[in-house]
Amino acid sequence: xxxxxxxxxxxxxxxxxxxxxxxxxxxxxxxxxxxxxxxxxxxxxxxxxxxxxxxxxxxxxxxxxxxxxxxxxxxxxxxxxxxxxxxxxxxxxxxxxxxxxxxxxxxxxxxxxxxxxxxxxxxxxxxxxxxxxxxxxxxxxxxxxxxxxxxxxxxxxxxxxxxxxxxxxxxxxxxxxxxxxxxxxxxxxxxxxxxxxxxxxxxxxxxxxxxxxxxxxxxxxxxxxxxxxxxx
Length: 232
Known about the structure:
globular
């Protein structure tokens, strides 16, 4: 019974993770199709897409994997949610961009409306997958590493890295506009508001890393095996 309960909890958490990634992908696609300048990391990924001749999603996977590698080299861990954020969400964004389900905007006001809606949806998706506590995104891990190494605040490190991402992305051909400024401040603000609405305190939540998940599943399997052997 205890093992069944554990399985149900993991199924629920995986459902939250997958739903959060899907919602986030919709939000990012809306931000890109608003055509008024995406949020900072998307400027970098958009610029890489243009300069390297790859899809936006492929560029996002490259950036996410590189950021995670840096964080791991400095001692940070990662979980299933981190891997989903690197590989699943970008793949869904590419699928949405290719499908044309979300139209592109060609005027400032319609673009701003789509952008603001996209920022809120992205924030909501981020909240959903973070409440699964199966691992935060690689960029969050990088901010923690930089804050620890530089002895600066996480907020300071985030602003510094995002400015650098915008500059590099712009030089590579990424779009910079009013949406970039709104995205830089709006996403974080709306994430905090959604966390408050959901009653989730991110600072108090332990994000389960991959070794912990493997250990829990292995222990569950061993307990199930031993329980089966004891039955007459």
